[in-house]
Amino acid sequence: MGGRQAGVRAATKGSITLDFYYRGVRCRERLKLAPTSANQKFAANLRAQIQAEIARGTFEYAKFFPDSKRALTLSKVPGAAITLGPALETWLKGMKGQIEHSTFRDYDLAIQRVWVPAFGTRRLTELTRADLKAWVAERSCGIKRIRNLLLPLRGLYAQALDDQQINVNPFVGWTPRKIEPPKETDDVDPFGPSEVAAILESCDGQVRNLFQFGFWTGLRTSELIALRWEDVDLDGGTITVRRAKVRKQVKAPKTKAGRRTMQLLQPALDAIRAQRQHTQLAGEEVFTNPRTGGPWLHDGPIRKTAWQPTLKRAGVRYRYPYQMRHTFASTLLSAGENPVWVASMMGHKDWTMIVRTYGRWIPSVAPDAGQKVAAVWLTGQNHHNQGET
């Protein structure tokens, strides 16, 4: 074994002790290294680095000795004494009155199922951007899912930096990215006119009213089941979308554009007038579950007890109920309606999403699209050729 150096000594056959002073306290920390000459030289260099950082005022105990009890008592950064699991749970409790119930539930699930198992015992100051990148690289889910899972962790670190519990936020200046193959299928798969007719002919009563109204308003399922009679103006032929029901919880629309007054097209107006005899007297939800007489709690019972049986009877290829919304948009656009007006009906803040999402459906139902401008071009060419002759 090598000779003893100042502040460095062999503790056992498998460890070396460093001895130094920090903030007026004598500190002895053990390295799990055999006290060979090379290892003692390494330990001496490490001690010299520690002393240099102490002199500069940049020393962080937890960076050198993360498992030491002194890392908690002597750290300049409060976050060095805080582990991620309890910190996330405390942060979430503080957010309860600031976020929607459904968002709170999503964050809680992410914390309990993802972050506590992955990093729950880490201290706030220990989690690095490299750790986060490695975690992202191991995920098989899409980037949107990854970013949603990161939201509570991102929120905790933003608050910790603001509260001066940490000096560095690993999320600042970083957005997770992942190369994903292009989707082979598209989520937009609207029903054709004959399919809509077959669906409506295969149901009756409240179920038919619900589906007909859905096909001709483009409301999200959560908006359909939250619509109340106080939101309906039959004389004016309008409805006002003020709320949505998600996971049994009623909430306001996410955006200003989501809260909207819609002029009802005739098929939708017919459907809601037919619904009056079933629920208007109660003055609460417009559409209720005919099996229970109570409100639809979420879209699950609609799919299982009404939508799936109806499509099976109609002999129509199955698509989920949200395709009623896609059908409404593609039908309006293919009929030549103004995309800006369609966007307002759908509750989008501008028309760009409408064109990006549904524009490609227009040529399939408007085979002469582009012919008008082509005719203008040909006319101009003919005039040009005649001028040359």
From TrEMBL:
GO function term, MF aspect, one: DNA binding
Keywords for this protein: DNA integration, DNA recombination, DNA-binding
Pfam families per record: Arm-DNA-bind_2, Phage_int_SAM_3, Phage_integrase
Keyword DNA-binding among record annotations: yes
InterPro entries: DNA_brk_join_enz, Integrase-like_cat_sf, Integrase_catalytic, Integrase_recombinase_N, Integrase_SAM-like_N, Min27-like_integrase_DNA_bind, Tyrosine_recombinase_XerCD
Organism superkingdom: Bacteria
Entry keyword annotation includes Oxidoreductase: no
SUPFAM superfamilies: DNA breaking-rejoining enzymes
GO biological process: DNA integration; DNA recombination
Domain Tyr recombinase: residue ranges: 186-375
The name this protein goes by in its record: Site-specific integrase
Native species: Dyella soli
